[in-house]
Input
Amino acid sequence: MRARSLGCSPDVVAHLDGLASRTHNALYAPRPYRLDAAWHLLSRGFPRTLRKNWRFLVVATFLFAFPFVVGIAGSLTSAEFARGVLPTSMLEQMAENYAEGFESGRGGGQDSAMAGFYVYNNVGIAFRCFATGILFGAGSVFFLVYNGLIIGTVFGYVMTQGGGTNILTFTSGHAPFELTAIVISGAAGMQMGYALVDTGGRTRLGSLRSQSKELVDLVVGTAVMLVIAAAIEGFWSPSSVSPEVKWAFAGCSWLAVFAYFILAGRWSSDSERGRFDRRPGSERFSLPPEWTERA
Amino acid sequence: MTIATARALPHEPLDTTADVETPEHIRFRYRVAGPSKRAVAYGIDTLVRLTIAVPILMLGALGDVVGGEGFGMGVLFVFLFALEWGYFVVLETLMGGQSLGKRALGLRVVKQGGFPLSFGDSVLRNLLRAADLLPGMYAIGVVVMSVDPYFRRLGDMVAGTLVVSEIPSKVANPLEISPPPLEKELARIPQRPPVSPAEIEAIELLLRRIGQLSHAREEELAGMIAPIIAHRMRARYRDPVRFLALVYHRATGRRS
Output
């Protein structure tokens, strides 16, 4: 700055700017990453953020559940409906998949192949469901409705083809993690889109940025849930364990997931400790970003 | 950090730079990277990912043929997933805001305000690639970038990040005027010519490029500013380039 006001030549100023920015980066480096931070995010940050933004969760649940019910009802009543939603070949493939039970199980190698595929496919769906929420929430709404409808239709169609028990038993294990995670990522996407609409007196960008910490919590939490879901879907769901055990497992999972959402991190007070984004100077000692922004 | 808007003061230069003021009240300037550089960096990153993915895919296929098991496929999918969603996050977190492509082009992701990128920021800005690349070829991202004064795509806006260009700067030697100014020539230039620092900077940038430009272009560029300065100090000149060189010599001479 002084160099600039002294009228030094541009290359000197550029050189000094480079030095200053590197020093600045070294001085204000982010806190080194610790396992601790990840634990705090999962044990407190994620469920807390979720509870704080329960409204979006309710809306997202409805946006997913309603088309899901429509899908089931529609394809139960008419096969035409199912064919209108999904290509016939795909439906038949699905019906065939669930025609037989899982008494025989699958080979171990095949299990891990499928688990890998589920990670690739489902986490990708959830991430996209979140990311497209930036378009004023439209993308998240679309993906929620779309996935709800597709999944519902497949369920309904498979039921009409006589594979109903099989598909329900199969999906019961991972549904508590997978469906909730997709709904949460949709809710996070809508939260992001809503921040653009209701800015709370900030600039649109400032409003968006004020959400970013919560969004990180939600997205990372969702990713972990989806990895759990994929592991179950790959190894447990297709195993030859008897349906009774699978249903009991599913019940426990639902209970555990809800207990986690409702109870986790409710009593501990050190909510801010170990967050990913803490760094000196950026939070405690300076104004919020939207104040310092001269917009 | 100031955000240039339509209300920006008129004397702020129309430039792709971002001013940063540190808590110590030191101010410095970042040069913001434009879409073309970032596209090239992205291209390099894509190539890197392809060169990783292709052999792995072939290995996976081979493993399946040999082993007859799906284990390889499982690992493969997890790997493809990591490559698709994790590549940028991991590299940007570990390499201080740079991916391989960005490093090749001297780009770096920084937090607005000049802070280094954190893990959470990187996750957000790279997840939102899924929105930026809609409906194909990063169409939304490019449109958003081109209307933003800092070339931020949606992911950058949510995460509050900025891609800057780090030009390896060298301090050049003081400018030599050739042939050296004669006493007779200098006599016609006032001791302290009435030129502002910004004008001196502009003249210096021009003089440094003398020899790289065609002669006609040199005269044309110099002819844009020389009359204004000449009018100001009521001087006459024959060669605008020479005149500017003399003014520069006078204006900076007393400092060095």
